[in-house]
Design goal:
With about 190 residues, the protein is mainly alpha-helical. The protein has a single domain, classed as Four Helix Bundle (Hemerythrin (Met), subunit A). About 90% of the residues lie in helices and about 0% in strands. The chain has six helices and no strands. The radius of gyration is 19 Å and the shape is globular. It starts with a helix and ends with a helix. The structure holds fe (ii) ion (FE2). The site of fe (ii) ion has 6 residues, from helix 2, helix 3 and helix 4.
Length: about 190
């Protein structure tokens, strides 16, 4: 498995989902967002665990890789903030737009700069091996998530509902705190 093929396929999948996000409304929008979040978390995980540590070493790819880690952090922060929302408002839309722009920039930089340099520095064989490793890690992680969610749907609905209402309450507290902070700023 060619590492670049795998990562580019992920990139295309997320780009499609961002398109879907734009046309979706209300609850459906949050559902598409959840899909984007899952995809991006998995993608950044395999890159940071397997791909970037190798790319950090060669001189040609060192700086770009450090930059890529930083960009991942920005994306992860935005994902965290966006996932707190229980409904979509203008602020959320603005933040989602910034997320998309950040992801698009990162993808462009990877595909146009980092990947060609990585191929030159590591060679085809190593890229192939890294691809295998990332595909295996992805499957391992996905398998885990699938087991988790099937366990949840298998009779634990009540406790899931409980957890949900608890976290909704926590969100409300946070939201009201943010509001009071904001209005304090205005004064
Ligand atoms: Fe990345």
């Amino acid at each position: 498995m060619d590492a670049f093929k795998l990562l580019k396929a992920d990139h295309r999948k997320v780009a499609k989902l961002f398109g879907k996000l734009e046309s979706a409304n209300g609850k459906a929008k949050l559902e598409v967002f959840e899909q984007i979040k899952t995809e991006l978390e998995l993608h950044t995980h395999i890159e940071e665990k397997i791909f970037y540590p190798v790319l950090e070493k060669p001189k040609q790819t060192h700086d770009l890789t450090l930059e890529a880690y930083e960009e991942h952090d920005v994306v992860k922060n935005l994902l965290r903030q966006l996932s707190k929302a229980k409904s979509v408002n203008d602020e959320w839309e603005a933040q989602a737009k910034v997320l998309r722009e950040n992801v698009e920039h990162h993808v462009e930089e990877e595909e146009n700069e980092l990947f060609p340099k990585a191929e030159a520095a590591l060679g085809e064989e190593k890229i192939e091996a890294l691809g295998e490793e990332m595909a295996a890690e992805k499957e391992r992680k996905q398998g885990r998530t699938a087991t988790k969610s099937s366990k949840k749907s298998g009779g634990a609905k009540k406790s899931a509902a409980k957890t949900k209402s608890a976290s909704t309450a926590a969100k409300r507290v946070r939201a009201s705190k943010t509001r009071s902070k904001k209005s304090a700023k205005k004064r």
